[in-house]
Amino acid sequence: MSVGEQKEYDERIERIQKVAEKRGGLTRVFLEIQRLVPQDIWLENIAMTSKSMTIKGRALNDEKISTYLQNLSMSPFFEINAVVATDVSVAAGTTGSGQSQMDFTIEILQFNDPTEQEVKFVEEFRKETQDQDISVLLVRFDRAGIYGS
Predict the structure, then answer these.
(1) Beta bridge partners of residue 45, listed in sequence order
(2) Largest CB tally within 10 Å, which of 14, 56, 80, 106?
């Protein structure tokens, strides 16, 4: 193999590795989105660009949408101020009990690539607070203050 061919081969391997790393990160993001869906919410569509993500779905009520927004905001994969409900409206259909459902659209405007330490911290926090009757809302999630970075 010539020097030129070796260089071309190395560049190609590097590009493949970068794509694989990005896909691995995206897989973690999609798994997080799925894991955080509360009961009585159904996701209908997830669209993604290089800079944002749009989640469309239906919920039994607006409280479920609020819970989902809170779950996403607390995730280390998304910036707390970058998770926004852009549309919430009464759905055309009803449940079997005749209860109205809500359609929603959530925009995620910024992604993170959290460290394993950040993911572990948030998972432990969720476990500690899941059995409490209070609603936990983090107004500001300051990673530098928590992790000493």
Answers:
(1) 56
(2) 106
Residues in the chain predicted with pLDDT less than 50, given as ranges, are: 133-149
Contact criterion met (CB below 8 Å) for 36 and 75: yes
Q: How far apart are CA 140 and CA 135, in angstroms?
A: 15
pTM higher than 0.90 for the full model? no
For residue 124, is it left (φ>0), alpha (ψ between -120 and 50) or beta? alpha
pLDDT digits (tens, 9 = 90+) for 35-68: 888 888 999 999 988 778 899 999 988 889 999 9
- In this prediction, residue 18 carries a pLDDT of 67
Pairing of strands 83-94, 53-59: unpaired
Residue 21 CA to residue 30 CA, distance in Å, equals: 14
Report the SS3 class of residue 8. helix
Instruction: Specify the residue for token string 């193999």.
Output: 1
Token pair, residue 118, equals 């950040």
